[in-house]
Prior knowledge:
alpha+beta
Amino acid sequence: MDDTGEPRVTIVPANEATWEDVQAVFGTRGDPSRCQCQRYKMQPGESWVSVGAEELAFRLRAQTDCGHPEGTASGLVAYLDGEPVGWCAVEPRTAYPRLLLKTRVPWDGRAEDKSDEGVWAVTCFVTRTGFRRRGISRALARAAVDFARTRGARALEGYPMITEPGRKIDLVGELHVGSRSIFADAGFAEVNRPTLRRVVMRIDF
Length: 205
């Protein structure tokens, strides 16, 4: 707890966390455990089924470089009073092969250089079961801004869902990309709306 009695959220680069903590966030059931945050990292033609959960976890472990603070990390881990509760994927946009495809998000309607390594992207949030609706994703989005900036990013993008009153969104299946309000609260501005339910949010440094 902090001085006000509120739960204390701390966030560290994934390489400063343990692999056990990362896996505690992802759990053993549901989309996060099956995907291991590889949806945008997989090569064209690959799928959860064709690659398999064990290989996907192996890839994530290599990407996070858990337990090696002197190395590099591809994400952030959030703790609530010392308990691992959240994950955010953030690294150069070019590190996500599936973002570089000719898809509507994030490219439709924008003249963007896909090879620009100075633009980073936030592609995924995971909040551990039992800890949702406590501001974990919002804290992670704010931390992602500092994380990218201090590592030389020129800009940071996110591709969240638009949440509308009365319209149901699958919190796990669809909101892994975050909501518009999460990014807006972290200082991002909307720069494009490629589909009815997706926006491109960006902050330039």
